[in-house]
Amino acid sequence: MHISAAAKQYLFLILAISSLKISQAQTIAITTHHTAIVFEIDTNKQVQQIYLGPKLSNTSVYRDVNPDYRNENATLNTAYATGGSTYLNEPAIEVKHADGNMSLVLNYVSHQSKILSPNIVQTDIQLQDPAYPFFVTLHYKSFQAEDIIDTWTTISHGEEDKVVLNRYASAFINILWPQNHLTYFYGEYEKEMEMKQSLLQPGIFSIQSKLGVRTACNYNPSFLISPTKDVTETAGEVFAGTLAYSGNFNIQFETLKLNIDMGNTLKIIPGINAYASSYALEPTEKFETPHFIFTYSNSGTGQVSRNFHRWAIDYGIWNGRQKRLTLLNNWEATYFAFNQDTIVNLFDDANKLGVDLFLLDDGWFGNKYPRDHSRAGLGDWQTNRKKLPGGIGHLVKEATSKGLRFGIWIEPEMVNPKSELYEQHPDWLMIAPNRPQHLYRTQLLLDLINPKVQDFVFDVVDNLMKEAPGIAYIKWDCNRSMDNAYSPYLKKDQNSLYIRYTQAWYNILERIRNKYPNLDMMLCASGGGRVEFGAMKYFQEFWPSDNTYPVDRIRLQWATSYFYPALTVCAHVTAAGRESLKYKMDVAMAGKLGFDIVVKKLNDQELALAHTTVDNYHRLQNVINYGSLYRLVSPYATNFSSLMYVDSARNKAVVFAYDMETMQQDTWPEWKFNGLDPKKNYRVTEINLLKDAPPQFPESGKVFSGEALMYQGLKWYMKKIETSSVLELEAL
């Protein structure tokens, strides 16, 4: 093995420090207001996880309950298990050193904590191989009030040549419950975020993606773990985590039973999917893994969700406190067939609904190959002169004159073969050599790894904003996955393709956000294909599914709510479904309300009800967007659903209730509210009704005590399928 002189000197210093005998255990406690994960440095200089659970009174209370056993098994519950050495199960990291050695040992070197703000503390634990200048830092950022811990890993080395990273997890979490019930989220196009609970058996179970882009289509990189299947919204231990990454991911759950070295334990290993992604790390390079965000609660799944929501609004999404805009989208009204007058006339329809913004969807671009259908024009981001002779700037001016903001749809990572871009830049296409061209939705993926392509994609947004500075909103779509993956820019070095594509996409988004920090952006990828916090740090909201059938949306929005707050979940009223307009609006109002309908098809009563509902949403938007969520009746367990949002002062609340497709007269749900102040009295009023229409809730307008609403509840009063009700609570 050849090591540079500087690296030798640094290695000598590290070895001198690490040769000092650790005479007594050092404890490293990562804590929030209510949660702790605690590590201990054992006599072998290994960092061991000794605790995960409720925060105890002080650091000295945490102790290793297996000290004798651990002395015989140095890898019992290690903080970051290494491959090729003495750990014989799934490792967090596996490398090939510059000299070909496949083994890795990581010893403790040092750690430090620093206060980043009154609410955030970051702890970094430095590790190093005792025989190589190979370094790993484990980072833990603890958000005190939110009870969230954000962890990631930085990898570097000082070896003479490249070190190949074969695995590189973001974290390695040890769970010591006797059994583990996993809740995860799977699906497909129009069936995203289906929720499933399973008892983990001995062996390895994983949720993962190899889609390259649209990474969360089949599995969302989020999960919950509980020691019992009977955990509820309000009771039971829960560990929940989500990986913030927009590329291929793999979250492994290795359940060990009767293991002679490690006993009974669950190892959670989240990170980038190592599939086709060995990464050659240069001596001067630092590799940073995606962030893994987790929380723990012994008060059920509801508290876990509220932890994530509070964290997401202030730290996990772009401009979380920026007011969300209600909108009308033209897609179902026009599809590709529109002209300038058609769009301008739709602005009046938006005003009839009372929404904030008009969103122009697909079909506005392309001249040599007009975007009159999905088979042409993609990649040619010039306004279609025949459809829109005044350009996008004219539409923005017209919308502004009518009191509306204006938004526009783009899909800048993609190209149709029938486009000028395809003809001019065949070297920009991700097409595997010697393989037939495989189109999906008649389109191909651009090679974002190429810096020229990154400039092109950035310019799609930048040129639009220059042409029409009044654009307030962009819907960013992504309608295919990555297959036959090959980057012409990388040439023979294809191993890091999946990783470098994601890095390139983030680079583009960084540039956009640096220049346009106040621009609203919706994340869309054939629906919910990119619903994860890696992308959401650049976007305000996302489109969770192209499935807008209201009953399906109730289940989808319920599952999505475990990790993502309501203000991020775009919920549009459309023509899909046989349910009434009221039902559709009541479902959509529980997320971020929008419309994609032909307004002219509404009768006067429907239009009046729509405007009333939009007004109610605007009036109660702060409660729905920023209030605490309490899920009351599960659509996964019953034929009904109910949830509520409560403001921070517990003075206002909004309750949503739905009957779904099937009814059984003898199983009306128990309906107890949550999150209220038991000492306050609340007036309960049904809203989203036509003027002078009788309420469904027979006691609408009456006053109830908070304790009565929470401990006695209300009688479920809806007796017909596909009916809905929205209640407003106001403390007196």
From TrEMBL:
Q: Which ranges carry the Glycosyl hydrolase family 36 N-terminal domain? A: 46-281
The UniProt keyword set, sorted, is: Glycosidase, Hydrolase, Signal
What positions does UniProt annotate as the active site of this protein? 477, 546
One Pfam family from the UniProt entry?
Answer: Melibiase
Q: From which residue to which does the signal peptide run?
A: 1-25
Q: What is its EC number?
A: 3.2.1.22
The record's annotation in PANTHER family points to: ALPHA-GALACTOSIDASE C-RELATED (PTHR43053:SF3), GLYCOSIDASE FAMILY 31 (PTHR43053)
- Protein name per the record: Alpha-galactosidase
Q: What is the lineage of its organism?
A: Bacteria, Pseudomonadati, Bacteroidota, Chitinophagia, Chitinophagales
